[in-house]
């Protein structure tokens, strides 16, 4: 990002990059687990849910890339190693159901991840409000996506 573009982001850029790096790391973690779920989910409805998880993996990867772009504009770089990302994501241990036919068990894991993402972007949107309009808009866009995704998973649990 150019000089003026950086100037108008009236928050400590180190803090902003650190917050965005956490979000980037978390999106990668969700991307990984959704891609894994697409590959291991089993049972009669495998084709349907494999596709749902594959799409989710792509969506979260898209989120990670949008965040990386903003980090670069602020003069930073996203975390480099996978082990750093897992730590930064701060989500803790993920355990899929041992029974790979247990679709709802998988969905519950992703529902928790969406709720984690909602809290993350709500916080980022609040803190950047009126101070860094570009990051604020990004946080709002991501927040809207995660809210919609939470709703979709909740609906799947009701099926
Ligand atoms: Fe996301
Ligand atoms: Fe999501």
Your description of this structure?
The chain has 159 residues and is mostly helical. The chain has one domain (3-158): Ferritin (Up-down Bundle), CATH 1.20.1260. 76% of the residues lie in helices and 0% in strands. It is built from six helices and no strands. The chain has helices at 3-7, 13-40, 46-73, 82-89, 103-128, 133-158. Helix 2 crosses helix 4, helix 2 packs antiparallel against helix 5 (103-128) and helix 3 (46-73) runs antiparallel to helix 6. The radius of gyration is 17 Å and the shape is elongated. 31% of the residues are buried. The mean pLDDT is 95. It binds fe (ii) ion (2 copies). Residues 27, 30, 60, 63, 117, 142, 146 line the site of one fe (ii) ion.
What hetero molecules are in the model? Answer: fe (ii) ion
Instruction: Fill in the CATH topology.
Output: Ferritin
- Name the structural class: mainly alpha
Instruction: Assign the CATH architecture.
Output: Up-down Bundle
| Average pLDDT score | 95
CATH superfamily: Ferritin, core subunit, four-helix bundle
Integer-rounded radius of gyration: 17 Å
Order of helices and strands: HHHHHH
* Low-pLDDT residue intervals, each spanning 5 or more residues: none
């Amino acid at each position: 990002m150019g000089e003026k573009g950086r100037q108008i982001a009236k928050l400590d850029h180190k803090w902003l990059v650190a917050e965005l790096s956490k979000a980037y790391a978390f999106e990668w973690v969700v991307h990984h687990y959704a891609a894994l779920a697409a590959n291991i989910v089993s049972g009669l409805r495998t084709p349907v849910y494999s596709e749902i998880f594959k799409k989710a993996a792509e969506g979260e990867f898209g989120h990670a890339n949008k965040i990386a772009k903003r980090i670069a504009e602020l003069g930073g770089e996203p975390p480099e190693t996978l082990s750093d990302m897992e730590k930064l994501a701060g989500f803790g241990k993920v355990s899929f159901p041992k029974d790979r036919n247990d679709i709802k068990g998988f969905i519950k894991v992703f529902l928790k991840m969406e709720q984690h993402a909602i809290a993350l972007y709500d916080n980022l949107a609040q803190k950047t409000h009126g101070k860094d309009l570009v990051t604020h808009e990004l946080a709002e866009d991501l927040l809207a996506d995660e809210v919609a995704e939470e709703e979709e998973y909740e609906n799947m649990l009701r099926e």
